[in-house]
Amino acid sequence: MAALFFMVTMALYFAATVTFLALLLRRAEALSTVALSLTATGFATHTLALVARMVGATGTSPPSFHEALSFFSWMLILVFLAVEFRHRLHVLGSFILPLALVSLVSAAALPETVPTLQPVFRTLWVHVTLSMLGTVGFAVAFVAGVMYLIQDGLLKSKRFNVLYSKLPALDFLDELNQQSIVLGFPLLTLGIITGAISAEFARGAYVNWNPEQTWAIVTWLFYFVVLVGRLTVGWRAKRAAYLTIIGFACVILTLVGVAVKSSGAVS
User: Cα separations (Å) of 110 from 46, 158, 213, 226, 263?
Assistant: First the structure.
């Protein structure tokens, strides 16, 4: 049943992504209604897929990277729906839905199970959940940064087209960028700490300096510098947008490293 809900969710997110992308080029409000309906329905089936997966899980098996990516996609949609409910920011879906879809497709391409591991399983679940929540914060900061640069470019070139009318004000995007980092950084920090604790129980060392751990630490240091720069030095606007895009590239490299290790572990 979980697999069926998962496939239906992918189909709905794909349809919503196409509709949201079309919304960037057209003024038709009917498209936003259709896109939101598809997204909300997909979120419902995605929730059912996650619940069915949890119910069907046996014992205290550790989370797979398939489940982590699926949860990441689910959280992205949850954040989008929350922002949409508060600000009626339809255009955000044109950037969030593609990310959620790519995450879900990547999850589908990965094994749904992993070999039995030795760490304290509850700690590992906490590590994965906190790390994914932190990643969601950075993903939203990345989206806000991309939208900021697009809107800034349209303003400077005086291209007041359909896309310009749909994108939020630069101040709003800058604030969204900062708030997302402020929320994501502590969650990533806690995720790294709980991951180190799990590694200590599993391998007798808090840090093994494997590629995924190294990239996670590099990502943490990068966002630490960005956060300090934003809150103390006053880094804002375009500089912050570029930095969060670079930071999210570090996040992607970390996730790719974990995905490659996960695939190789079951091959």
Answer: 17, 45, 20, 32, 6
pLDDT band at 233 (very low <50, low <70, confident <90, very high): confident
What dihedral angle (degrees, nearest 10) is formed by the CA atoms of 217, 220, 225, 229?
180
Between CA 119 and CA 123 the distance in angstroms is: 8
CB-based burial, 3-36: b 16+ in 10 Å, e otherwise: eebbebbbebbbbbbebbbebbeeeeeebbebbb
Q: List the alpha helices (DSSP H) in the chain.
A: 2-23, 29-56, 65-87, 93-109, 121-157, 162-166, 170-203, 211-228, 237-266
pTM for the model stands at 0.88
Q: Within 10 A of 217 (CB to CB), how many other CB atoms are there?
A: 14
The tens digit of pLDDT for each residue in 19-60 reads 999 998 887 778 899 999 999 999 999 999 999 888 876 555
- DSSP SS3 for 1: coil
